[in-house]
Amino acid sequence: MKQLIECVPNFSEGKNMSIIKQITDVIEEVEGVKLLDVDPGKATNRTVVTFVGTPDAVIEAAFRCVKKASELIDMTKHKGEHPRMGATDVCPLVPVANISMEETVKYAHKLAERIGNNLNIPVYCYENAAMKAERKNLAYCRKGEYEALPEKMTKPEWKPDFGPAEFNAKAGATAVGARDFLVAYNINLNTTSTRRANAIAFDVREKGRVLREGNPLTGKIVKDEKGNPVFKPGSLKAVKGIGWFIEEYGIAQISMNLTNISITPVHIAFDEVCKKAEARGVRVTGSELVGLVPLKAILDAGKYFLRKQKRSVGVSEEEIIKIAVKSLGLDELKPFNPKEKIIEYVLEDDSKKKLIDMNLKEFANETASESPAPGGGSISAYTGALGVALGTMVANLSSHKRGWDERWDEFSVWAEKGQKIKDELLWLVDEDTNAFNKIMDAFGLPKSTEEEKAARHSAIQNATKYAIDIPFRVMKKSFEALELIKAMAEIGNPNSVSDAGVGALCIRTAVYGAFLNVKINAADLEDKKYLEELFKQAEDIFEKTNALEKQIIDIVKAKL
To answer: 435: which residues sit within 8 A by CB, 6+ positions away?
Structure first.
C-alpha cells in the first residue's frame, strides 16, 4: 500500500501574502503531493504550511519550498514574536501511513543533506532525526535564535549536522526533524464551567497540576530545591490540555494536543476524559477533531469500541469508521465527513472512476464491452475478493452466533484477516487494469532515435514485468484466503458451511484465472531467469490451491 508522510515547514514570513503564495506554489507543482493547509500569522510573522504525499515527492516539495524561502525571505530584516533562526525555521516530517518512524528519519536526513549541500544553509536535525542527543530538543537547537548564529557558527559544538559551519545571513539556519503525528482534539462537556473543564484537563494531561500541601485547591504550592513549582502528573502520557468555553456552541471543552498518538491514541484520550469527567459530576457529550487525521487513528478507535462491545472487528472500513464517529461523538457539533477529515481520503483522486466503485451491473456491462479492460486479471481478483468475503461473512456470523458468545474474539481474528485479504484483492481489481495501461503507454513512447528506442524498449519490459507481477500477486493473496475458509468450514457456524464451500470454489477460480494471466502476459518478457523462478512459484501455488480446495469441499459435503 502507498506510503505517506506529512511535512509541516514553518516559514519566517506571515505578512506578505505574495511571498507566501510563491512558496506554496512550488509545493503544488510537485506531482504526488497535496497542499493541505496554509496558516499565516501576522504577530508571529510566521506561516505554518502542511502538505502530504509519497516520501520522495514530499522530499522534493520540501526542498523546493526551502529553496524558494531562502530566495524570498531576508532574515536580516525579520522580526516576529515566535522564536526563529531561519527563513525556513523548522521542517519536520511526520509518518502518516504504511511507513515507520525509522524510515521517516532516513528521509529527514536525506532532505537535510540536500538542503545543506545544495543551498549552503546550516541544518540541525532534531526530535527523532537528531544525530546528537542534546539536539533532540528543538528549543536547544534554536537557542539564541537567528541573532546568536554568527557566534554559534564559530564554535565546534555548534557545527551543523549538514551544510557549512558558516553564518548564512540571509537564510539563517534550518532545523529538519522527524516527529510523531500531532492530533488537535477537543472533547465536549455538558457544562459551561471553564474551571471544571480545566480541572478535568489537569487530571489527564501529562504535565498534570501544581502540587499543593494539604488542600489541593488552596494549600501551599510545593516547590523544588530551585524554587520551581512541583507538578503532580496527569494520567495520560504525550498529552497537553486545557479547559475553555466555546461561545459559538455554548459549552466548555477540554482542548487537547495528542503529541504522540502511538502512546495515547484518540480513543484512549476520550475514554479517560469520560472517566475523569464522571468523577467530577460532568458528562462528555461528544468531541471534535481539528484538522486532518490519519486513517489508522480512526480505524483504531472504531476497533477499540467494537472490542469493548465484544463484537467482531472484521467488518468493512466504512463500518469501522461509522462506529468510531458515533462512539466519539465526532458529529455532535457539525457533520463529520471522512472524505474531508481523513488524510488518505483527501488524497484520493476522484477524477478517475474505479472499477470497484461501480455497481454490479455497471461492472458487468463494462467487462462485456468492446474495451480490452477490465479483463481476466481484474475478474480473477474480484472473484477472489468475493471468495474471501464469503469466508469472512461466516466468521462474522459465527462471532455473533447465540450460545457462542465466549468465542467472539476467536472469530473476530479470522474475520479481520479476511477483511485485509479482501481489501487488497479489491485494490488489485483496478491495478490489473492500470498494469495493462502501463504497457499501452510504453508502446506509445517515441522511437525516432536509438536513445528513444532503448528507453521505449526498457519501459515496455518494465511494464510487462509489472503486468505479470499483478496477477501473480492475485494468486498469492487469493491462496491466503483458503486458510480462513477451511477454518470456517471446520469450526464456523454450521448453518453457513455451504457459503464456505462457495468461497473455496471462488478462490480456486481466482487462482487459476490469475495463473492464466501470468502466462499470457509473460509471452513478451525477455528476462527468462525471472520467469523460470516465478512460474515455479506459481505452479506450486496452483497445486496447493487445488489440494486445499478439494479438502474444503469434502468437509462441506460431509456436513451437508
So the answer is: 377, 463, 466, 467, 469, 470
Euclidean distance between CA atoms 72 and 25, whole angstroms:
13
CA distances from 146 to 39, 89, 167 (A): 22, 9, 10
Quick check: helix, strand or coil at residue 341? helix
Residue 227: alpha-carbon gap to chain centroid = 44
Confidence (pLDDT) at 348? 83
pLDDT at residue 1 tops 80:
no
Domain boundaries, the chain: 4-178, 183-344, 356-559
> Which residue among the candidates 82, 271, 400, 423 is catalytic per the annotation?
82
Q: Please report, for residues 321, 398, 419, the alpha-carbon distance to residue 403 in angstroms, rounded to integers and kept in the order given.
A: 28, 10, 24
Q: What is the pLDDT of residues 115-153, one digit of tens each?
A: 999 999 999 999 999 999 999 999 899 999 999 999 999
Asked if residue 351 has pLDDT above 80, the reply is no
pLDDT higher than threshold 90 for residue 403: yes
* Listed residue (272, 253, 235) closest to 196, CA to CA: 253
Q: How many CA atoms lie within 13 A of 26 on its CB side?
A: 18
Do 457 and 439 meet the contact criterion of CB atoms below 8 Å apart?
Answer: no
| Interval 478-500 mean pLDDT | 97
As a whole number, the mean pLDDT across the chain is 94
- Residue 97, classed as helix, strand or coil, is strand
What is the C-alpha separation between 391 and 414, in angstroms, rounded?
Answer: 9
- CA atoms of 264 and 188, how far apart (whole Å): 18
Q: Do domains 4-178 and 183-344 have the same CATH topology?
A: no
Q: How far apart are CA 74 and CA 98, in angstroms?
A: 38
Is 499 annotated in the active site? no
Q: Report yes or no: 415 and 485 within 8 Å, Cβ to Cβ.
A: no
pLDDT at 372 over 90: no
Q: What is the pLDDT of residue 361?
A: 96
Of the CATH numbers 1.20.120.680, 3.30.930.10, 2.60.40.10, 3.40.50.920, which one belongs to the domain with range 356-559?
A: 1.20.120.680
State the Cα–Cα distance between residues 83 and 141, nearest whole angstrom.
11
Mean pLDDT for 7-20 is: 95
**pLDDT reading at 220 higher than 90:** no
CATH tag, 4-178: 3.30.990.10
Q: Confirm whether 89 is a catalytic residue.
A: no
Q: Which of 161, 180, 432, 499 is catalytic?
A: 432
Cell 508571529 found at:
44
May I ask the CATH class of domain 183-344? Answer: alpha beta
Helix (H) or strand (E) holding 92: strand 88-97
